[in-house]
Specification:
Helix content of chain A: 10-25%
CATH topology of the largest domain in chain A: GMP Synthetase, Chain A, domain 3
Number of domains of chain A: 2
Oligomer: heterodimer
Structural class of chain A: alpha/beta
Distance between the termini of chain A: 33 Å
Number of strands of chain B: 0
Structural class of chain B: mainly alpha
CATH architecture of chain B: Up-down Bundle
CATH architecture of the largest domain in chain A: 2-Layer Sandwich
CATH superfamily of chain B: Ferritin, core subunit, four-helix bundle
Radius of gyration of chain A: 18 Å
Helix content of chain B: 55-70%
Strand order of the largest sheet of chain A: 1-2-3-4
Strand content of chain A: 15-25%
CATH superfamily of the largest domain in chain A: Fe-S cluster assembly (FSCA)
CATH topology of chain B: Ferritin
Number of domains of chain B: 1
Largest sheet of chain B: none
CATH class of the largest domain in chain A: Alpha Beta
Largest interface: A-B, 45 and 53 residues
Strand content of chain B: under 5%
CATH class of chain B: Mainly Alpha
Radius of gyration of chain B: 23 Å
Chain lengths: 163, 305
């Protein structure tokens, strides 16, 4: 095995995420590694959540893009260790999320078990930049998102939650 | 004259736009490739090294993965039953999200079980084609949902205990089990936080909400101890759950104290001849749950779409 030439990585890295199409799999941090061995390419993906239903489509997309780019032998594999973390979302990915109206996550870490009054992280509204925001629900339209609202512009928005 | 022009009024701009969008998606992503379900990519452990490490017994590892996988699968089904029935839309989304996490864990664990025992059974075969007495889940997860507070109480007990267990298993010698646990511990932290928040809200709410929450706790509490009662397989695999009893009970007691609720004094639900869920001895609630869960797969064996 040799280190992947930039091209195979670039092809796989450019595949958009099926649920967050403004992000590539590389920007989301799902693309773990790409190796080439002669004419064969192996790409490893790390699923976001255990139950993420998009992983099958991600794998199919990476496979199709690499074949279309001229690699005759393509394997897409899963890598579970280390687990995906929102810390793997790149700076470009965070900027694109915010531009698409989805608040990017803060530093990863488990939610602390709080027995006192609920205190949310300070989150900036991706629509108006306001800081008077509140969480409506910790769970949203996909496993990785929470639902928030901004009290400055009165608009709801989604936010990638830390994991 | 071979030029073709779309007659205004015959094809709306919307139609053109749709086809344009599809064609611009790129030839490399045409047709069936967009729909991966039923393709070779459905194996949740695709490409993961599934060699059973030396020093671990494959049959024991499989039995243990089945225990944890069945816990997750059955509770996922119970949580999904709240879909269209929860008090608020947000809670419905939350409960089904939690179910999705558990379903994902179940898929990985059942797949691991089918590999480790050498039978090569896939996740679907294990999920859809076993009978109730072949399921290895604890009885806590199969109990009917009851009302919302009852379901919150069950989730609080399960998520607190399972999060603690995953924390231990993240260092297990089996790399697949360890990876599932390392991912799952953070997911369970969200489950625990959700259940804790609702326990506080209901317990510290009105006298009526507190009474409903207490009733839910009283109902599920006898099922808690089974999670800490070691099965020989758990001991052989190096995952003695009795080590969790004290720290989990301490965490639960702190939550209930803050919520103004009482730790139930109910005795654990008895085993039958020394056997319970881990040996396939279940309550009458599991059969109907499985009947609903399995009916489509059994009516159309091997169906794809």
């Amino acid at each position: 095995m040799v280190t992947a030439p930039a091209t195979a990585w670039d092809v796989a890295a450019a595949v958009p995420d099926p649920e967050l199409p403004m992000l590539t799999l590389a920007e989301l941090g799902v693309l773990a590694e790409v190796e080439t061995d002669g004419r064969a390419v192996t790409a490893w993906l790390t699923p976001t959540y255990s139950g993420c239903p998009a992983i099958a489509e991600m794998a199919a997309d990476v496979d199709a893009r690499l074949r279309a780019a001229g690699y005759p032998e393509v394997r897409v594999r899963l890598r579970l260790d280390p687990p995906w973390s929102t810390d793997r979302i790149t700076e470009d990915g965070r900027r694109k999320l915010a531009e698409a109206g989805i608040a990017p996550p803060g530093p990863a870490g488990p939610p602390l078990l709080r027995l006192g009054p609920t205190r949310h992280r300070a989150v900036t509204c991706p629509q108006c930049g306001g800081t008077d925001t509140e969480e409506l629900s910790r769970f949203g339209s996909t496993a990785c998102k929470a639902l928030w609202r901004c009290r400055d512009c009165r608009e709801p928005f989604e936010r990638i939650k830390e994991i | 004259m071979t030029d073709h022009h779309v007659m205004p009024g015959h094809h709306g701009a919307g139609d053109d736009h749709v086809y344009l969008t599809l064609s611009e998606a790129g030839p490399e992503l045409d047709g069936e490739a967009r729909w991966a379900y039923g393709t070779g990519f459905s194996d949740p452990l695709l490409g993961v090294d599934t060699t059973v490490p030396a020093g671990l017994d494959g049959a024991d590892l499989a039995a243990y993965c089945l225990m944890l996988g069945d816990d997750a699968l059955v509770l996922a089904q119970r949580l999904t039953e709240w879909c269209t029935r929860a008090p608020e839309l947000e809670e419905e989304v939350a409960l089904t999200n939690l179910g999705l996490d558990l379903l994902g864990q179940a898929r990985l664990l059942l797949t691991r079980a089918g590999q480790a025992d050498g039978t090569g059974r896939g996740e679907d075969e294990l999920a859809y084609w076993r009978e109730a007495h072949e399921f290895r889940n604890v009885r806590l997860v199969e109990a009917p949902n009851g009302d919302f507070a009852h379901s919150v109480a069950r989730l609080l007990l399960f998520a607190t205990a399972r999060g603690a267990l995953y924390g231990l298993l993240a260092g297990h010698p089996d790399p697949v089990l360890a990876a599932v646990a390392a991912r799952g511990v953070l997911e369970l932290a969200y489950h625990q936080e959700y259940a804790t928040a609702w326990t506080l809200r209901l317990g510290d709410g009105t006298p009526y909400s507190a009474a409903r929450m207490q009733a839910g706790l009283d109902a599920v509490w006898p099922l808690l101890d089974e999670l800490f009662t070691p099965h020989p397989v758990e001991l052989r695999i190096g995952a003695d759950p009795s080590a969790l009893r004290e720290p989990v009970l301490r965490t639960l007691a702190a939550v209930l104290a803050e919520a103004g609720l009482t730790v139930p004094e109910a005795r654990p639900l008895a085993f039958v001849g020394g056997r319970a869920g881990r040996d396939g001895v279940h309550t009458e609630a599991l059969g109907p749950l499985l009947a609903e869960f399995q009916v489509v797969a059994r009516a159309h064996p091997g169906a794809t779409w």
